[in-house]
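Friendly challenge for the regulars: who can give me the structure tokens for this chain first? No prize, just bragging rights.
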Amino acid sequence: MMPTGTHINYYLVCKRKLWLFARGVVMEQTSDAVLLGKLIDESSYERKDKGIDIDGTIVIDWVDGKSGVVHEVKKSDRMEEAHIWQVLYYLWFLKQKGVAVAEGDGQAGFRGEIDYPKLKQKTTVVLTPEKESQLLELLGNIRTVMERRDAPERLKKRFCRTCSYHDLCWSTG
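First reply, four minutes later:
Bragging rights claimed.
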């Protein structure tokens, strides 16, 4: 199974969440935080074509073909590292499909941008050869977590309280 952008994000946030999600446990529909994120996404950049699904593997929030930018919209930069790697994965996936991707500043090809409309901030993401190598290692680590028989340990982090998997995670061993 080819990982999705969600798999990438969950691996970097919480391996237990990734493990549950990989087994078909989807809790986002009960999360107010996820609902707020979707509302922000839907109300931002209203004229853009959104939710571009490619092969059922990645769903790009929107693409600006003129400027060569793949956009991902997030409500907060609290988990920015996970957001960056999610966008790097999108760029890598597009590259595997034959799309020209910029490998450095000033180079031709698509690059990524994470948009934080509530914060009025943007973060640019470029798939350098070094990041691509790290991403391939990350993909291997994700597969390892997904194939585990037992769930990874709980994190016991502050953000666990607002996670859509909180009740399930803390009611199981």
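The domain at 5-171 is CATH 3.90.320.10 (Lambda Exonuclease; Chain A). The first strand starts at residue 52 and ends at 54. Your move, everyone else.
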